[in-house]
Automatic annotation (TrEMBL), chain A:
<dbReference type="InterPro" id="IPR008952">
    <property type="entry name" value="Tetraspanin_EC2_sf"/>
</dbReference>
<dbReference type="InterPro" id="IPR018499">
    <property type="entry name" value="Tetraspanin/Peripherin"/>
</dbReference>
<comment type="similarity">
    <text>Belongs to the tetraspanin (TM4SF) family.</text>
</comment>
<dbReference type="InterPro" id="IPR000301">
    <property type="entry name" value="Tetraspanin_animals"/>
</dbReference>
<dbReference type="Pfam" id="PF00335">
    <property type="entry name" value="Tetraspanin"/>
</dbReference>
<feature type="transmembrane region" description="Helical">
    <location>
        <begin position="57"/>
        <end position="81"/>
    </location>
</feature>
<keyword id="KW-1133">Transmembrane helix</keyword>
<feature type="transmembrane region" description="Helical">
    <location>
        <begin position="233"/>
        <end position="255"/>
    </location>
</feature>
<feature type="transmembrane region" description="Helical">
    <location>
        <begin position="12"/>
        <end position="37"/>
    </location>
</feature>
UniProtKB/TrEMBL annotation, chain B:
<dbReference type="GO" id="GO:0016020">
    <property type="term" value="C:membrane"/>
</dbReference>
<keyword id="KW-1133">Transmembrane helix</keyword>
<feature type="transmembrane region" description="Helical">
    <location>
        <begin position="193"/>
        <end position="217"/>
    </location>
</feature>
<protein>
    <submittedName>
        <fullName>UPK3L protein</fullName>
    </submittedName>
</protein>
<keyword id="KW-0812">Transmembrane</keyword>
<dbReference type="InterPro" id="IPR024831">
    <property type="entry name" value="Uroplakin-3"/>
</dbReference>
<keyword id="KW-0472">Membrane</keyword>
Amino acid sequence: MAKSDGGIHILQGLLVFGNVVIGMCGIALTAECIFFVSDPSGLYPLLEATENDDIYAAAWIGIFVGFALFALSVLGIIGVIKSNRTLLLVYIILMLITYAFEMASCITAATHRDFLTPNLFMKQMLEMYMKSETDNNNDKWMTEGVTKTWDKLMLRNQCCGVRGPSDWQEYTSAFRATHSDSDFPWPHNCCVMDARGSPINLDGCKLGVPGYYNSNGCYDAISGPMNTHAWGVAWFGFAILCWTFCVLLGTMFYWSKIEY
Amino acid sequence: TYTPTLASPTLGGRTTASTFVLEQPRCVFGEEHSDAVIWLVVAVPEGRWGTARPPGGASPWGPPSSPVPIPAAVPKFNNSVGPGTPERTFQNFPATAPAYLTLNTTLLGYPCPKPPGDITVLRVGAETSCAGDKSRPTCNGPLPGPGPYRVKFLALRDTEPVGETAWSEPITLQTAWPLGSISTTGSGRSAGMIALTSILSILFAMLLASLVALLFFGGSDTHIGSSTFSKPEPVAVRRYNTHHVYDQPAARL
């Protein structure tokens, strides 16, 4: 009996340790998802305008799942130490529900990241940047969001367009309808600015002289934060779920061994 | 003789939809032209169908224009037709004026030798303010279409041609693809996403199956003794009174 008692104690210890790790990971997941939802890179208006902002929905789910994991891990520790069948059954069922939600969050984040291609952002930029006639309030809101975001993006990262200033030449755009090609081959925010926010040499910028305009595209500045966001939610969640899988299997085995 | 060329390809705005950038003709016209005015001639190479220019300048989003025949200019170009005449007015180009003259300067505008490292270019199509103003027939306005165009430099002394360069190669400007032609269909599912989805689905299915097995089979009370353990309980001992049959007669009494 001593040997199986020792085995049970080891299992108990492992389950408590597993739950402690789940609790800590839950807190970490909540913190990470709050960070992403706070949109430090300011790119949310671009996603909002694509009407495909599900990677934000995945982060919101992650916040609540993190809390739930923390609470359930405490319940699990208590249930394992007291060897209480009811508590552990409640723990297992609630954990499975939380598992399902977190699975949804991970799959959503991973799937929707695949939608965010350079062409999507280029088409959106050409359709909405500095669009002057908006159909309704919603359109106006999204257009203003896209315009402000692109202005900020081009100034902060010293870039122009998605692939480069040639985006504005290769395709028609809403910008082109109100800004003539001769005065604005590309938006003036693509010019290298001085400390006061005006181009250092507007003619040089219009000519496309290297050093007076930004010849690189902004796609890296967009995809970097979005990749971090999507992969952070998806793969960290995946790691937590793999660990939770093992802990839950162990808990189920432990539960089956408790006598009535 | 000198052939006008486009500027170096390092310039991002070398050709746009309505402008192009030429190298300045440095060290081309000699001192004998120091009292002449050097003009840039912009012409269409051969006759073709074009669209009439809407007033105020061309716009790709504007109303559709009607096609007009464009007269050929280069083959029979007459150097003596002066700048600013109706046949050489920018605002009539290219419908009734097969060419126009612009960017006039004296030889001082093109000093020779060219300082090394300097960017010496001419941007054709840079002036938007005079594009619709017929009182400025030598306006360097935005070009009305993608071309092709051919240019040459012409030195005039009081409307008398005294020197010229060769015609350039045809210069074609950029045409913009319509915005709707950008395809935004995704590049398909990435491998990481497929792996993540399938692994998580399999794990979840295994958990559900274990739960079902647990509830229906693991909950029975047919445990083999030594593989289970019991919670520590207070031991209750029952006292059996084995002499109860002798107590009953006492109760009847």
